[in-house]
User: Which sequence fits this backbone?
């Protein structure tokens, strides 16, 4: 039986070139010209965890901007060495927001946000109010993990608490600050959960527990906010190919004495569609949930897993 070691995952602000196997795993290529929801034009959205061009958060921001939505990109943008929450820096965040606004002809704003810090969350909400006035779409996408891989009984207390704080409490803090900006006009909240909330993963218990909490929070919010015409749903992505996921496969390769391509190929065997997902596929689902096309849906958790998870 192999020995397991403890690693703390760090979101380095780098971009990794995708291997040939990764490219093959994404076939067939997603067709361009995916639906643009015209009813979203002119609305305002906040997307947390949107500071990396190769990440899911930015893909969501780009998709909404393509639909004519004014977008606020929020992320932890403090360039501190060895900061395990670091995903971006202020200059990069501003560049992404500016370029997106110019390309899609919408208003954009870059916001520094630490979802574990209530003061940072409130400062972000204040800046957002000044920039947009109100919000119609909130996507709680920010998330990370610490202290993995590890067993529940071997988990470091600090790593466990940090993982819960970012992934669960972060959704609570941001929602609490932003809902007052939505109550007058109604809108849609989309929380990023994970297939790990429904299908227990090995050696990643804190993340799974946090995301399961996000699912229940989504249901509670959906019931509480229905009277304000605010719908609340969740997305549950499976293995989505980003630079962060590539880094994970690189770590697995070291552990299993294999190549990253071999680890990806093994993972694809577990997925009925036979490939990894893309950030754009998650973004397309988020845009659908934000639009009036899903107007009779609230309290739901949609799987985006290629069939790897099929339970409700």
Assistant:
């Amino acid at each position: 039986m192999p020995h397991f070691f403890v690693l703390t995952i760090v979101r380095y602000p780098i971009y990794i070139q995708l291997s040939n196997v990764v490219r093959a795993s994404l076939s067939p290529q997603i067709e361009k010209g995916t639906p643009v929801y015209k009813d979203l034009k002119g609305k305002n959205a906040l997307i947390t965890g949107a500071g990396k061009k190769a990440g899911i958060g930015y893909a969501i921001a780009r998709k909404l901007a393509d639909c004519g939505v004014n977008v606020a990109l929020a992320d932890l943008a403090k360039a501190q060495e060895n900061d395990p929450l670091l995903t971006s820096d202020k200059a990069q965040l501003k560049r992404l927001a500016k370029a997106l606004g110019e390309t899609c002809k919408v208003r954009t704003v870059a916001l520094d946000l630490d979802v574990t810090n209530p003061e940072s969350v409130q400062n972000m909400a204040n800046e957002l109010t000044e920039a947009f006035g109100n919000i119609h779409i909130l996507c709680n996408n920010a998330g990370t993990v610490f202290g993995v891989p590890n067993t529940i009984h071997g988990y470091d207390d600090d790593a466990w608490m940090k993982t819960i704080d970012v992934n669960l409490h972060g959704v609570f803090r941001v929602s609490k600050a932003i809902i007052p900006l939505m109550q007058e006009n109604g809108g849609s909240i989309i929380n990023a959960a994970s297939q790990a909330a429904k299908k227990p993963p090995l050696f990643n218990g804190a993340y799974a527990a946090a995301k399961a909490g996000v699912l229940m929070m989504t249901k509670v919010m959906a019931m509480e906010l229905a009277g304000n015409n605010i719908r609340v749903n969740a997305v549950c992505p499976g293995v989505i190919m980003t630079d962060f996921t590539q880094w994970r496969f690189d770590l697995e390769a070291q552990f299993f004495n294999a190549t990253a391509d071999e680890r990806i190929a093994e993972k694809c065997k577990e997925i009925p569609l036979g490939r990894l997902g893309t950030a754009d596929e998650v973004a397309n689902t988020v845009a659908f949930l934000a639009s009036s096309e899903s107007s009779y849906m609230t309290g739901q958790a949609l799987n985006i897993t290629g069939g790897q998870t099929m339970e409700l």
Notes: The beta strands are 44-48, 70-75, 108-112, 137-140, 187-192, 230-237, 240-241, 277-278, 301-304. The first strand starts at residue 44 and ends at 48. Confidence is low (pLDDT under 50) at residues 1-31.
